[in-house]
Each structure stands twice: as C-alpha cells, then as structure tokens.
Write a structure and sequence with these properties.
The complex is a heterodimer of chains A (587) and B (94). With 587 residues, chain A is an alpha/beta fold. Chain A is built from 16 helices and 20 strands. In chain A, helix 1 runs parallel beside helix 11, helix 3 packs across helix 11 and helix 5 packs across helix 15. Chain A is globular, with a radius of gyration of 23 Å. Chain B is built from five helices and no strands. Chain B is elongated. The relative contact order of chain B is 0.14. Classes of the chains: A alpha/beta (587), B mainly alpha (94). The interface between A and B is medium-sized, with 38 and 27 residues.
Chain lengths: 587, 94
C-alpha cells in the first residue's frame, strides 16, 4: 500500500495548551508547523482546567519565584527535579505576561493588575504564611488559554490536521524521530507526516481507570507511542486521585462539600471516618479519605446493590447552604443523578484525576532515555510536553495551579529548543520503507477479520482491573495479582476483532487503537507501583507506609520490552540556588 | 439478492450519521462526553430532520458554552436549542 507523505519542519501531536504553545512559538518564526489532533483543537482537555496558573507576580500578597520553587519541591515530596522546578518557577512570570499580551482575559484587581487567588500548598517565605499565587480567568482559565492560543496559531498559519489520529512515531535506525503515521478519522486514510522534529503533547491517560475526571479522549496515546518506540515511561506510579467523584461516572465533587460540613457514610449508615481519622474526620488528607472509602467497600460495607460506593451526606446542611454555597455540586447532582443534594445523599468513589509521570524529558522538552552513555541520553528530534511528559516538576504529587503552568512553560521551552534543532538540522532525515513498517503493521492489525471479543468488553475489564488493583488501595498482593490479570488481558487484546471494517468515520477502529494505548500505559502504571516499596506523595501503600529516601529517592523507568523496571537519580541540584534537602512533608 | 427497502436505506443513513456525530460528541470535558453520548444513543434517533440538524449545530458551539447550557447555568437564546438542551438533560436522568 502506498501511503502519501507530507513534509513539515515540525510535527506536534496534540492540541492542548502544551502543543499549541509550542506550535505558536514555532509558527510565529515562520517555520512550517503541523499540529495533529484527534478532536477539534479547542475540544482538548485543557478546556476543562478551571483553577488557574501559578506565578509569583506578588499582585495580591508578597511573593517570590524562590518561594514558589520551595513549595513545588516540597509538594513533589522531594521527587521533583530541582533544575526543572527552578526553571518553571522563574519562567512562570514572563509566561503569564505573555499570555496576557496574547489576549487571555485574566481576572483583575481594582488597580488593573492580574488577580491572584490562594490555593493549598502555597506559602510565603519558605513555608510561612499563605501565599496568593494563582492567576485565573474566572473559573474557566483553561478554556480562555486554549481559545487564545488556538486563535493565535491560526493567525501564525499553523497547519492543523483536525480529527487525525496519530498511530505511531516513525524512527530511523539510529533512533531519531522522523515524524509519525497518522490516520484521517473521516476517511480512514493513512498519511505519513515527515518532520525534522516531533513533539508529543497528547495529555493524560485517566481513561485507564474506571472512575475518572478525565474526558474520553485521555487515553495515553503519546505515552504509548513513546513506549512502542523504545522510550521508557517515568514515575507512572504517581497518579492523583480525588476522594469524592460521582460513583460510576467520575465527575468531581469538590472538597468544599466536606468543608461545608458534609460527611461520608457507609452501607450501615455509619460515619466511618471517625474510625480512620478521629480528629480530622472527613477533612483528613485526600489519600487517607480515599483509602478509607475503598477499605469500607473492600470489607463489604459499601452502599448500593453492588456495595461498590459510599455516600456523601449533605442533606443535614439545609437547602440554603447547599444550593447557595455549593451550586456546582447541586447542578451535577440534578443533571447526572436526578437528585437534589439538599435532600438526597450522593454516591461517591475516588476518581482518577492527574498523572505526574510520563515521557521523560529534560527542561528543554527533549525526550531523554537510558542509552550507552547514561540514563538521560537525548532522543534526536523527539520532544514531549504537558501531562504526557515527565520533566519532572511534580515529582510524586502536583500542586494546584502548577499543571497549566507546566504545559505552558515546557510547551514553550520545547518550541524554543526545536527552533535551534531545526536550524542545526536543515534537511529531513531520509525515511526508508522499513522505518514505516512497524507503524503500518499496527494499523493493519485491526483489519483482521473474524470473530473475537469486542473492544468495549476488554476496555471495561481493563478499567475495572486498574481501579481494583492500582487505585488508591495499594499493597504487594493486590498489585501482584493485578499484574497477572493485566498480562492475561493483554493477551486477550490479540483476540479482539472489529466487526465494522468500513473506512468512513469508523470510530470503532480508533477506539481499538486507543485500547492498545491504554493497555500499555496501564501496565506501566501497575508495574511501577508494584515495585516502589514506599509511600511518597500520591503513591500510598498500606504495606510500606513511610517515605524511604535512602532506597527510593529515585525516578522509576518502565520499559515495554520485557516489562522491565529501571531507575535513575533525582536531579537535586537547581540551576542557580541552593538545593532544598528532603524533609518531612507537613502542612 | 434482495433489494434494500426504504427503511433499510434510512437506517443505514442514520447509522452513518450517528458514527460521524459520535466523534463530534468527543469533547474536552467528561460531563459533555457523558451527556452528549447518552443522548446520541437514546434520544437522537427519535428526532425529526430539523431537530437533528439543530443537534449538529449545537455541537458546533464551544465546550464551555454547551457545558453552561447543559448544567443549567445559562440558557440558549434560540428556542430550538433550548428544547434540545432539555431533551439532552432528560436523557441523562437515571
């Protein structure tokens, strides 16, 4: 089969905040930039980010980028790379001003400067008083940023391949990235996009868990592409869960509900947090609340016919408090559950929210992988940024307001480095038929005819498996059983067949390709979690309850080849300031 | 070989339209994914031709605007879209 080729200077896969900020940096200097997105760009998951962007502007309270750096290192439970964190916190300030100049309508204070709100984990003077560091555009910051960046890219003549699905990276014999094989979803026709540099900016993979806040599109496509290209994934065991998602659906019920006096009850009607956290009760830390909920369910005290959730009780607060102070929750309950939370309890279960791990990069956005000369050798021409990447600024746990910052700063940094790379590599590297073969075979695999299991059945089993064996309740036995089950499920995928082999808008085919990706990132997550025998940040184990800096202050690296685990040191030396040595993370 | 009936042709046309719209119902927000896909599976096929076109038009709006409508935080100016919003919300009811 002859597949048409198109050539660009740079290829960007994913059109969220990271991809679009990189694209804008490149296209505004006149480079030919292709952005491939499986959905229309402004439907990327960045649109759902409500919180804001951290930057030490000091508009509301005194602030300093160095304080921001301290908070981020501490928040990461000392697993974040301090060179990258220093870079991010310094760059945060010009990044926000750049966005402001590009047209993002940030909320303002009376004197016209950008308003900043206080978030958890923000301090003045290295752990002192509360800071106010988060710049927001009302409660729709992600939406405002995404639309602004998209419009600026259109003006800069970025070439968008809307509703194209990236099948796989193409690399040459030396491992250099040559571009990607993509598929036009409407026609089902493949296309090879050749590029001097390729950036993966495909976002997260929350859909690997049954209960998640992530949109359907978050299937870990870029991470799985990296794995198949021989690049390991880093720190995949660190995944942020919120204790209270709507059971069976995933939407977040904000902690504000418990802050207003709401509490959790089990199937016996018992306020069970009294047993797990007698003082803090339902306002104990997220991991404690989430694990307590799952313990109740595992021990048979869940609610509902399947005893698979617990209940959040707000009905004692009165209609006025619930409706006026918690309007978002009221709306979600009315629309999705058909109940009024002032009168009925809400079924809840911990919901998967954000990946700290991903494709390992340096602070220039370059993908780095172990090779002959060390654990961080640059993969020529390959970049990653945003939630699919691990630079690593979040380490074991991300602070609120740092995720939009991460995608913007490192999207831009990747763009800047690609400019230099393309200037030094003026010609496209030659692409041989053999270089394309693995990607083409992956696509052809789903053309196999015959009877077999459905994509939906295997995907549902995968998501349940990940929730049961690699959710908030983690111990050796639970996860070891999970790995065995996932190995068996991976074998089942070989037997899955599509019933519809038509080309036009065959979304079943796209979902099959996404299933491959989910299985790969699922295994990366489960293997990394099984092997890390400590509790750090979001990775909380019931059999290893303490942080163990001596053994485990290192990054995990999972390789698909043989499901192999490897490790590399944390970069504890910042660029210009003193290191923050590990301390107990107490707030 | 049997000749396809008008019903067969109509059913095929609707199936193709649903397949095309399925991807348009993939959005940046989980809430929209759930609401729009549920409606596509349960309510869309009962719509008349005009209402189907209205649904396609609704999908052309920005995620945040559709979210506000479906969550009841704002109301579309157009009566046809208001009707659709009510139907999409109704389809989600347990």
């Amino acid at each position: 089969m002859s597949i048409p080729h198109r050539k660009f200077d740079a290829l960007i896969i994913g059109a969220g905040g990271a991809g679009l900020n990189a694209a804008l940096r490149l296209a505004s200097t006149g480079l030919r930039v292709a952005v491939v997105s499986k959905v229309f760009p402004t439907r990327s998951h960045t649109v759902a980010a409500q919180g804001g962007v951290n930057a030490a502007l000091a508009n509301v309270l005194p602030d300093d980028w160095h304080w921001h750096m301290f908070d981020t290192v501490k928040g990461s439970d000392y697993l974040g790379d301090q060179d990258a964190i220093e870079y991010m916190c310094r760059e945060a300030i010009p990044t926000v001003y750049e966005l402001e100049h590009a047209g993002v309508p940030f909320s303002r204070i009376d004197d016209g400067r950008i308003y900043q709100r206080a978030f958890g984990g923000q301090s003045q003077n290295f752990g002192g008083d509360q800071a106010a560091r988060t710049c927001a555009a009302a409660d729709r910051t992600g939406h405002a940023i995404l639309h602004t960046l998209y419009q600026q890219n259109v003006r800069a003549r970025t070439h968008f391949f809307d509703e194209y699905f990236a099948v796989d990276l193409i690399r040459d014999e030396e491992g250099a990235a040559l571009g990607a094989l993509v598929l036009e979803i409407e026609s089902g026709e493949p296309l090879v996009i050749e590029a001097k540099a390729t950036l993966l900016a495909t976002g997260g993979h929350g859909q690997v868990f049954r209960t998640t806040t992530n949109a359907f599109i978050n299937t870990g496509d870029g991470m799985a592409m990296a794995l198949r290209a021989g690049v390991p994934l880093m720190d995949m065991e660190f995944y942020q869960f919120h204790p209270t998602g709507v059971a069976g659906k995933g939407m977040l019920i904000t902690e504000g509900a418990r802050g207003e006096g709401g509490f959790l009850v089990n199937g016996d009607g018992e306020r069970f947090m009294e047993r797990y956290a007698p003082r803090a009760l339902d306002l104990a830390s997220r991991d404690v609340v989430a694990r307590s909920m799952v313990t109740e369910i595992r021990e048979g005290r869940g609610c509902g016919p399947n005893k698979d959730h617990v209940m959040l009780k707000l009905d004692h607060l009165g209609a006025e408090v619930v409706h006026q102070r918690l309007p978002g929750i009221t709306d979600i309950c009315r629309v999705f559950l058909g109940v009024d939370p002032a009168e009925d309890m809400i079924p809840v279960f911990p919901t998967a929210h954000y990946a700290m791990g991903g494709i390992p990069t340096d602070r220039f956005g370059r993908v780095v992988a172990p090779a002959r000369h060390g654990p961080e050798e640059v993969v020529p021409g390959l970049y990653a940024a945003g939630e699919c990447a691990c630079v690593s600024v979040h380490g074991a746990n991300r602070l609120g307001g740092n995720s939009l910052l991460d995608i913007l700063v490192f999207g831009r940094a990747a763009g800047t480095d690609i400019l230099e790379y393309v200037a030094e590599n003026r010609n496209h590297r030659p692409m041989r038929e053999a270089d394309l073969e693995p990607a083409a075979q992956r696509l052809a695999r789903w053309d196999r005819q015959g009877q077999g299991e459905s994509v939906h059945a295997v995907k549902a089993d995968l998501r349940k498996l990940m929730e049961d064996h690699c959710g908030v309740f983690r111990d050796e036995e639970t996860m070891a059983v999970g790995v065995e089950k996932l190995q068996a499920l991976r074998d089942r995928v070989e037997g899955v067949r599509l019933q519809d082999h038509s080309r036009t808008f065959n979304t079943a085919r796209i979902e099959a390709l996404e299933l491959d990706n989910l299985v790969d990132v699922g295994m990366a997550t489960l293997m990394s979690a099984l092997h890390r025998q400590e509790s750090r940040g979001a990775h909380s184990r019931v059999d290893y309850t303490d942080r163990d800096d001596e053994q485990w202050m290192k990054h995990s690296l999972y390789s698909r080849d043989g499901d192999r685990m490897d490790y590399k040191p944390v970069r504890t030396k910042p660029l210009t300031v003193e290191s923050f040595p590990p301390k107990a993370r107490v707030y | 070989m049997t000749t396809p009936t008008t019903e067969d042709t109509d059913a095929r046309a609707i199936a193709e339209e649903v397949a095309r719209l399925r991807w348009q119902c993939r959005r940046g927000m989980l809430e929209l994914d759930l609401l729009l896909n549920r409606f596509l599976d349960s309510g869309f096929q009962q719509l008349d031709q005009q209402a189907r076109m209205d649904f396609v038009r609704l999908l052309g709006y920005q995620d945040q605007i559709i979210y506000d409508w479906l969550m009841g935080q704002s109301v579309p100016a157009e009566a046809a879209l208001r009707r659709l919003v009510a139907q999409i919300r109704e389809a989600m009811r347990p």
